[in-house]
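Please fill in the sequence for the structure shown.

STRUCTURE ENCODING:
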């Protein structure tokens, strides 16, 4: 949570990847926000789809959806959390 918070508060999104258990390939999403109300949450943008049904969504086109931090860390929708890419900066 700390590393994630530092990146987002510095104005830097991060890339998170998820995969099915045991797979060597996965899928990436953008993490662009955090919240501590009502609990620790992460705002995720999935380039494959707009807001999934049943999710708390945000954005002009409902392109972002909220996950609890625990769900983000463990994985969601049948996927497991894999690798995060931090320190994204403009050249």
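FILLED IN BY: designer on duty
SEQUENCE:
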């Amino acid at each position: 949570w700390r590393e994630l918070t530092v990146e987002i508060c510095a104005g830097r999104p991060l890339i998170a990847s998820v995969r099915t258990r045991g797979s060597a390939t996965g899928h990436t999403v953008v993490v662009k926000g955090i919240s501590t109300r009502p609990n620790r949450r992460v705002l995720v943008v999935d380039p494959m789809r707009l807001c999934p049904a049943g999710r708390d969504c945000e954005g002009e086109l409902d392109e972002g959806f909220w996950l609890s931090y625990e769900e983000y860390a463990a994985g969601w929708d049948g996927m497991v959390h894999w690798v995060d890419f931090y320190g994204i900066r403009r050249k």
